[in-house]
Amino acid sequence: MSLINTQIKPFKATAYHNGKFVDVSDESVAGKWSVFVFYPADFTFVCPTELEDLADQYAEFQKLGVEIYSVSTDTHFSHKAWHDTSAAIGKVQYPMIADPTQVLSRNFEVLIEEEGMALRGTFVVNPEGEIKVMEVHDNGIGRVASELLRKVKAAQYIAAHPGEVCPAKWEEGAATLTPSLDLVGKI
Amino acid sequence: MSLINTQIKPFKATAYHNGKFVDVSDESVAGKWSVFVFYPADFTFVCPTELEDLADQYAEFQKLGVEIYSVSTDTHFSHKAWHDTSAAIGKVQYPMIADPTQVLSRNFEVLIEEEGMALRGTFVVNPEGEIKVMEVHDNGIGRVASELLRKVKAAQYIAAHPGEVCPAKWEEGAATLTPSLDLVGKI
Amino acid sequence: MSLINTQIKPFKATAYHNGKFVDVSDESVAGKWSVFVFYPADFTFVCPTELEDLADQYAEFQKLGVEIYSVSTDTHFSHKAWHDTSAAIGKVQYPMIADPTQVLSRNFEVLIEEEGMALRGTFVVNPEGEIKVMEVHDNGIGRVASELLRKVKAAQYIAAHPGEVCPAKWEEGAATLTPSLDLVGKI
Amino acid sequence: MSLINTQIKPFKATAYHNGKFVDVSDESVAGKWSVFVFYPADFTFVCPTELEDLADQYAEFQKLGVEIYSVSTDTHFSHKAWHDTSAAIGKVQYPMIADPTQVLSRNFEVLIEEEGMALRGTFVVNPEGEIKVMEVHDNGIGRVASELLRKVKAAQYIAAHPGEVCPAKWEEGAATLTPSLDLVGKI
Amino acid sequence: MSLINTQIKPFKATAYHNGKFVDVSDESVAGKWSVFVFYPADFTFVCPTELEDLADQYAEFQKLGVEIYSVSTDTHFSHKAWHDTSAAIGKVQYPMIADPTQVLSRNFEVLIEEEGMALRGTFVVNPEGEIKVMEVHDNGIGRVASELLRKVKAAQYIAAHPGEVCPAKWEEGAATLTPSLDLVGKI
Amino acid sequence: MSLINTQIKPFKATAYHNGKFVDVSDESVAGKWSVFVFYPADFTFVCPTELEDLADQYAEFQKLGVEIYSVSTDTHFSHKAWHDTSAAIGKVQYPMIADPTQVLSRNFEVLIEEEGMALRGTFVVNPEGEIKVMEVHDNGIGRVASELLRKVKAAQYIAAHPGEVCPAKWEEGAATLTPSLDLVGKI
Amino acid sequence: MSLINTQIKPFKATAYHNGKFVDVSDESVAGKWSVFVFYPADFTFVCPTELEDLADQYAEFQKLGVEIYSVSTDTHFSHKAWHDTSAAIGKVQYPMIADPTQVLSRNFEVLIEEEGMALRGTFVVNPEGEIKVMEVHDNGIGRVASELLRKVKAAQYIAAHPGEVCPAKWEEGAATLTPSLDLVGKI
Amino acid sequence: MSLINTQIKPFKATAYHNGKFVDVSDESVAGKWSVFVFYPADFTFVCPTELEDLADQYAEFQKLGVEIYSVSTDTHFSHKAWHDTSAAIGKVQYPMIADPTQVLSRNFEVLIEEEGMALRGTFVVNPEGEIKVMEVHDNGIGRVASELLRKVKAAQYIAAHPGEVCPAKWEEGAATLTPSLDLVGKI
Amino acid sequence: MSLINTQIKPFKATAYHNGKFVDVSDESVAGKWSVFVFYPADFTFVCPTELEDLADQYAEFQKLGVEIYSVSTDTHFSHKAWHDTSAAIGKVQYPMIADPTQVLSRNFEVLIEEEGMALRGTFVVNPEGEIKVMEVHDNGIGRVASELLRKVKAAQYIAAHPGEVCPAKWEEGAATLTPSLDLVGKI
Amino acid sequence: MSLINTQIKPFKATAYHNGKFVDVSDESVAGKWSVFVFYPADFTFVCPTELEDLADQYAEFQKLGVEIYSVSTDTHFSHKAWHDTSAAIGKVQYPMIADPTQVLSRNFEVLIEEEGMALRGTFVVNPEGEIKVMEVHDNGIGRVASELLRKVKAAQYIAAHPGEVCPAKWEEGAATLTPSLDLVGKI
């Protein structure tokens, strides 16, 4: 069964966030839009470029009321050390969740059991805790923050406008469709 | 467990393809790159815009040696009738798979059991039959063919260049990374 | 065990009916006689001739207080498109039930699992929701609406006249039999 | 699951046939078309009228190479006694199968468990032993031998003409349909 | 375990009795002595001679306050027809129970499963519903009504005279034994 | 299920027979007709009268080639002591089987579990080891040896004359019936 | 697990006692010391010498307030007959329990299942129903009543003198030991 | 089930024997008579008096070819230390088995689970490894070596003289009984 | 799972302590620090040197409010005898627990099942009954009491100073560390 | 059951070792003595002091032919980054095993499931792969490398000198004990 439109499962984790260790849980993310960005491991290759790309666009997400959570199976100690020593990661201002118990990676079905690390999975979660968009890549293939931004906007738009849907290639401001019996078989 | 890097499961289906009914199976898709594009139902709203978008870029995919398969739980009779009567769908030249037994939709975990229809799921499959990229949207949110094209190119590039990985925002022709111990903790 | 004299099982479905999408359920059919007519798929061959035959006799059924429901595993979108584009189906004024979840086809034991389509099954259901007559054909063999009408009349007659039964070849207005001990071994 | 297109299950029974007790089994009915006509009990009401109606048309069935088997849960002793004493049943020249073990009535799913008697079920079986047509009535509603004859002819016609199907209301000699892709969505 | 001294199990059946169809059940036989006489089938050979023998002695049983119930797996329709057409059976004035559901034959463990008919079993049941005497023969061996009468009398005598027992060859009016410690080892 | 026409189960036992302790088993009784006569206990009341009655008719049984076996759950020591001290039992010349393991009493389903003693059960077994007649009484009701003799003769007669059956009240030398189709419904 | 210090299990039995049949149960033996003496069978060899030996010392046991119960799987009828006819057994004044249901022999784990008889087992039971001494012999080896008497006395002595124990070879009146920490390692 | 006449179960243990640690097992005790004497614990009260009593009579047992094995759940280290420091135990010349794994105490069903110590159990085992006599006491009651000697002699006598049995109170040299049918009911 | 930080399981045992037998249980050890020192057996080799080493340092442990419990599967009788006869063990003033039921050895997972003896295991338990330190050796390797003392002090220090931890080689009085986010990645 | 004397379970892991990533497995550690040192997480507090202490004594271990493996659930990327950035860890020359799959931490039963990190556990493994010494601390209590060195020496000494054991407080060069029966109860 797909994770789309299911409720995120309960979790409790520690994150490194702007120089502090903070608690994050399914309850604390409720009530606003959030994006969970899984990656394999701290101190590796594609990962910092992806996290830096998100850091660069973080202000845009903030404006939309969206929080970003990066997640790996490393500890919060490791996240802090990485943040201290990497120029790219040093830019990150969103919470970096530590998942050494691998509960979160299993919940989102991205854990590679034989490696103990996560796949590159991205999940857009609405304020009700329902997953609306998911995207998972083989670990060699990087993601693009701007495309993620487009999807978040589309998800927010249709949430705000019941009865409308976003057609292919929809960009913010473009026309949407309003399904009705008359349209059936006419597009 | 994630579908990423798993083998696609066996299936047999009938497709409408350029005026003919043809057989498609896990065996017939083996040996080349393929993209499976699930959508909810013929004669509906977002679907034709997505299928048209793909039809418009079909030549690009063909150049990369990639076949596109659209899939819904409608019958091949319905696909043929839709192709005959819709201007948008009339442009489609790739195979339109009929999945009334819902086997394929269950295999790719996109079936909405209580509706008997599929979610908007896209899957990039390599010639060995392994799923390398997956993307699933709530049905109100449309997809973008050009972004799919980028991912296919990245997947093909790393398959062709063992030892390299594509960083975030990678576009065809851009530099890739070659993981090595020296890079650990240095990006 | 036979379905005859069992209660129809719960279902919820959407139908296309005279230009509208309407809800149909086991509860909405209760309280009057109904006929469920299953067929394999929209846009096929025998099916429109059967549905047209029923459309032609619909007024007769209406006079008897009987509602007709045609059912296939296609969606209501497909039903609407077929109704719009086929002269034969365009005549249909009874509700065309969409069964993409295949619940109804399984309830009436007419689903061909390996095809995802229904057999040609006809079921007469009384106002109490009990199946009184059933008839199922291999898909190559068409049905006759007038014979169905005769059976409906016989079923209604014996429901209205407890203690009487309809002999072979009974037609409306003909004599019936009243079973009694004296008749035993005497016919 | 429907009995249509399933193989009849093994059985062994004794029948009364033209003044003799004979063995009948799934093996002895193989190789020619047959019709199984179940009814509740010897010495009852609707039953003799139905069996007589069939007896009257028996020559027609014989011409088509079809054998008729009537079946009830009575013993062969009872069948013989009924044949001896009833004018209507005295006309019967086809085998009257005794099913006191109720194996055959269970095989064809027409046994009313709480009565130990069968429903009025009719089954057309092809020479390969597959059920092609079935019809079951509540016990108060009689059957019509001529309609059965029409169905047998349609079943034989499509068996003899692969690729053709019989539309609604088809009678012997009328045109049939040959399904092809061009017809899809055109009737 | 033996059926002797067990309670008869619940049953509901229809019997042919003196020109009427009547209901018989475990409840309706309670409160008086009864004899259940099973036989294989109506219209057969040994059976009518046994039932006639019982019919001839029925007055004797009646005097003792004992009801006789004959039982076969035939229907009540068949019993009536047999009674109408057989001189021997025409004499029967006790209820002829129909057991087409085979519940009663299974309760008394006399059903021959592979034939759907009962063995020649006789059971004497006291007013409390307990089986006191049982006798079962292979179907080729007939029973004797006068011996049954002797057993019924012995059963009634010891029921009426607690503390006495009937020795071998006891006939009505003969001396009985009163067990006591003094008799132990003295006979 | 009835014991009639089943094979007797394996057993091994010790019997007291004409001043000796002998072994008896299912194998040693095979090949000739035998009668097993169960009774509750040595040194009791009805039992010696029954065993004496059989002793008096033993010569008749011997002439028919029939062996009698009396059986109780007492030991062979007890049988010997009873034979030594009781005038009635002193006459017994047939084997008295000891069944302290209660295997035989359970095999023939006559053990009263809560007393550890057998019911008064009589079983006629043919040379093939099949039970042809059974009779079980509540312990207060004695049996009659002459009636047993009649049944043994009937069982032997139909075994010797395949195709004939013994009607009710049949005595040695009387006419038997030969079942045939012509007789059906004619007696 | 050993039976020593376990509670005797519930039982109900009939015994022959001084010319009467009496009921004995776990409840009726409670409240005083008792000895259960199992033996294989009435009318055998070692058994009467053992029971006679106990009969000779019965007065001694009575003085100690101890009841003796002999037990075999024979019936109470057999016990009575044995008592009547054997000089040795005629001396017995204690209850002779009949155990044809073999419940008691199983409770005390002395039943030889393949013979239906008990081993030579002796059990001393205190007023609380707990087994304090047990002794079981292969059936060829007889027991000695005087040794049993010594054990009963020792059991009663330590029951009456908490804190003392009887050393090896202890006889009535001899010194006992009072365990204390000072004695540890000093004897 | 009783342990009498069962085979002793496999075991391996270490014993202290005349100044050495030796291995003892089911295999090493086979081929001669042996006696297993269980007691609760080294350094306790009744135990040394019992072991000393046996030590005093050890020459008698040796003459009969019988080995004695004392057993407790203490270790062989403890046995050695006890032997070194106790005058009574210092006399012991037979093997003292250590059973800290409690396997042997469980095999002979004398382990008190809630104390981890054995009951006072004595077992006579024949050269075939079968237990012929068992005796178990509550721990406060001591045993008598001379009575054990008598039982061993009786067990050996009947083993050497098949067909004879030892009556009650039998002492070496006394007459035995030879069971025969003539003796039944005569003692 | 590790025993560290689990609650000790319930137990009840007898110990030899300063010339007395005393009860020890999970409840009696609660409320103060304790050390459980398992060893294989009384009267052996390494064991007395270890117990003596602890006896020599017992005053130090007492000062820290720590009780020492030595444990083996020997009985308390054996402990007392050992204490009486060994110069080394004679020094012991702490309780010597007897564990013949092996419950405690199983609770702490140090029982060698095939020997019935414990490994050399040491466990430091805090006043809440939680195991804070464990150490288990193959039986040939002795332990050092002074190292145990160091660990107890460290465990007590961190219990008394929440938020501090003892670094490697910490000795009483040395500096400890106070974990804080600033220290992460800085040591 | 204790891990002592069990075989280490199979594992495969990546370690950071002197500037390289190397494979380590149960097979690669076989054939020489090894020490596994588990700790909670890279970049934390007690851990670097312990690892530094071991690094300082590494030459001593090397001389004894012993390899040290530190293990945490961090990745090898994290180990490398820590080694690069910490002065204390920079000294480490032994392999640092990465255990993100937590297989090794579970094998040695030190995983804290609810934290995804290991306890401070130390295990000495002999060349045959058997665990000879284990020590586990609550995470606040540091370990001492010199004490570990003493235990390794004792383990090696007794492995090299079968028949000797190391008493308490044994240091390299000190006398050992040779267990013999004469010593039992004498120390």
From TrEMBL, chains A, B, C, D, E, F, G, H, I, J:
GO terms for biological process: cell redox homeostasis; cellular response to stress; hydrogen peroxide catabolic process; response to oxidative stress. It is found in: Cytoplasm. Keywords: Antioxidant, Cytoplasm, Disulfide bond, Oxidoreductase, Peroxidase, Redox-active center. One of its GO terms (cellular component) is cytosol. SUPFAM superfamilies: Thioredoxin-like. Its EC number is 1.11.1.26. It holds the Pfam family AhpC-TSA. GO terms for molecular function: NADH-dependent peroxiredoxin activity; thioredoxin peroxidase activity. Residues 2-157 form the Thioredoxin domain. InterPro entries: AhpC, AhpC/TSA, Peroxiredoxin, Peroxiredoxin_AhpC-typ, Peroxiredoxin_C, Thioredoxin-like_sf, Thioredoxin_domain. The active site is at C47. Thiol-specific peroxidase that catalyzes the reduction of hydrogen peroxide and organic hydroperoxides to water and alcohols, respectively. Plays a role in cell protection against oxidative stress by detoxifying peroxides. NCBIfam families: AhpC. Homodimer; disulfide-linked, upon oxidation. 5 homodimers assemble to form a ring-like decamer. Belongs to the peroxiredoxin family. AhpC/Prx1 subfamily. This is Alkyl hydroperoxide reductase C. The gene is ahpC.
